[in-house]
Amino acid sequence: MDRNLLGRLIITLLLFTCMGALNAQYRTAVYLQGIENDDLKNDIEANVSALLSEFNKACLANENPDYSNINIDDAAAARINSLWETVSFRCNETEIFEFISKRQDGFYEVRNMPLIIKVTNDSLDYEDAVIIISPEGLIWDMYFGLESHQYKKLIRQNRNVTDFRRRQVILDFVENFRTAYNRKDLIFLEQVFSENALIIVGRVVEASDLQSNMLENNFEKKKVELIRYNKSEYIKHLQVVFGRNQFIKVFFDHINITQHRLHNNIYGVTLKQKWTSSTYSDDGYLFLMIDFKDEDHPLIHVRAWQPEAFTDPDSVITLGDFEIIQ
After folding, report:
1. What is the pLDDT of residues 53-112, one digit of tens each?
2. Are residues 118 and 189 in the same domain?
3. Are residue 114 and residue 188 in the same domain, yes or no?
4. What was the pLDDT predicted at 280?
5. pTM to 2 decimals?
6. d(CA 270, CA 287)
7. Same domain, 7 and 140
């Protein structure tokens, strides 16, 4: 055989070997249990695997994801792209074995998809993604979920079938609400607040900000001032916050769900929120009063945040602090 031809064959073989090894680094295979339709199961497994593998490839190459070979809804792709603009992510697992569950709305839900989040060049974090799939196998949405043990604990606290269904809706809503801040989604946030929503934000006031006569009354060096916004004011405030931050990461923990004793559609959700952004970080208590009269379009009537360091746990705002008139 001609030596030049032999050399070209060897080079070609090496190139294919390298390409195969490179593709193997990107590949995440997902295997699901909990669905009886084998054809649909195979389609969903292939689709979710392709999505995670594309995240891996795009993250390592510092590029935007390419959805051309993925069966995904256009709106879902747009939401993921909005999230990608603030943080990129990848999955380091080569194989994932998980359960898929069917929701009340007929869609499927795959939880606990482990992602490494690239917040900055020097900062990594971890999230469990939730992927929603349509009855036909189309990827319909993706957002950051609660930790697995926390989600299961909250679901198990239901009292009856109706409460179980409502808790699923609440947690889905809370996870979407949280991810909306991460992807700076003003449109979503504007839609979920009622027109007459009350937004309360706690601001730590330094001693230098207080009037001199206040200091004479032995005020502490720091106090918390509760600032009230209406919906329009709060959205404008968020627009400024989103504009000046390269990234925003919101994390929820210690979640408690309470149903109003008289108004069954009203729920209070109290939790601890950790906010990290490129310009500011804090920890605090967050309270949401959510109206589920229309389960497809829940509305927030009250959002209240109080800084943890300057808030006594007994003074955290809860559902019992409000009189509801319907």
Report:
1. 999 999 988 999 999 999 999 999 999 999 999 889 999 999 999 999 998 889 999 999
2. no
3. no
4. 85
5. 0.82
6. 5
7. yes
Q: Which residue has the tokens 């709305």?
A: 105
| Dist CA 121 CA 124 (whole Å) | 8
Q: Domain holding 114: CATH number?
A: 3.10.450
Range of the structural domain that residue 130 is part of:
3-145
Rounded Cα distance between 207 and 214, Å, is 9
- To the nearest 10 degrees (0 to 180), the angle between helices 161-182 and 148-156 is 150
Q: How many CA atoms does the CB half-sphere of 8 hold within 13 Å?
A: 5
Tally of structural domains, the chain? 2
For residues 137 and 228, membership in a common domain is answered with no
The tens digit of pLDDT for each residue in 26-64 reads 799 999 999 989 999 999 999 999 999 999 999 988 999
Neighbouring C-beta atoms of residue 139, cutoff 10 Å:
23
Both 254 and 195 in a single domain? yes
Other Cβ atoms within 10 Å of 231 Cβ, number: 18
Here the tokens at position 8 are 């070209």
